[in-house]
Design a protein that fits this description.
This protein is mostly beta strands. It has one domain: Penicillin V Acylase, Chain A (4-Layer Sandwich), CATH 3.60.60. About 10% of the residues lie in helices and about 40% in strands. The chain is built from 3 helices and 14 strands. The strands form 2 sheets. Strands 1, 2, 10, 11, 12, 13 and 14 form a 7-stranded antiparallel sheet that branches. Strands 3-4-5-6-7-8-9 form a 7-stranded antiparallel sheet, covered by helices on one side. Strand 1 and strand 2 form a beta hairpin. The longest helix has 11 residues. InterPro entries: TANGO2 (IPR008551).
Length: about 230
Amino acid sequence: MCTVVVRRSGGRPVQVLALRDELTSRPFDDPGRWWPEFPDVVGGRDATAGGTWCATRVGTGATALVLNRPQRPVATPGAPSRGVLPLLGVTHGADWTAHVDPTGMASFLLVLATPDRLVTWDFDGTHLREQEHGPGTLMVTSGGPEDRKAERFLDRLTAAGSRDEWRRLVQAAPPTDDPGALVVRHERDGKVFATVFGQLIEAEPGRLLLEHSRRPWTGEPWTTLAVGAPG
């Protein structure tokens, strides 16, 4: 995951915009209930490592997302994959740290958005720093302040009154080599690293509305996955 926007306000479902940038050659599965050990969890599945970049637990309305960070790009052999973190986050909440040892893991930022809390954990390869965020709109990116995405887009994302307006911002420009763009496409040494997935989430306890696309910058319809009773 490379760009995450979370809107949380009292009495309303949590809303999330998530854009995943990855090697275009790395296969993945669209969101579903892929993990028998987590039967109440919905998320896309990385076909290589088996984990996920974003997971929602339907019963609680909790969503967790993991972003790569640049400080330590490669994990120690045998260390857990970052793809397990969203699954642990939605299952155990803020106590996920008791269920995995990050020692040796590649650096990451984990976001946990629930109806009651919005928390991030930033791991630089050595230290894990927890930060609580209040109600409102939060934007985080894998590049951090250096990529200037939040500087360019946060005000517009905050002002947008609906998920459809968020989608229109994503569709405002095609993929570009600019690291500060919402949707990107970088080609280096014959490999393409690009925005490969976009999703919009609205979650509350017992209900999940998830819209997703593998080409989120186009005007093509997004696939809708609805779980639970209407709110």
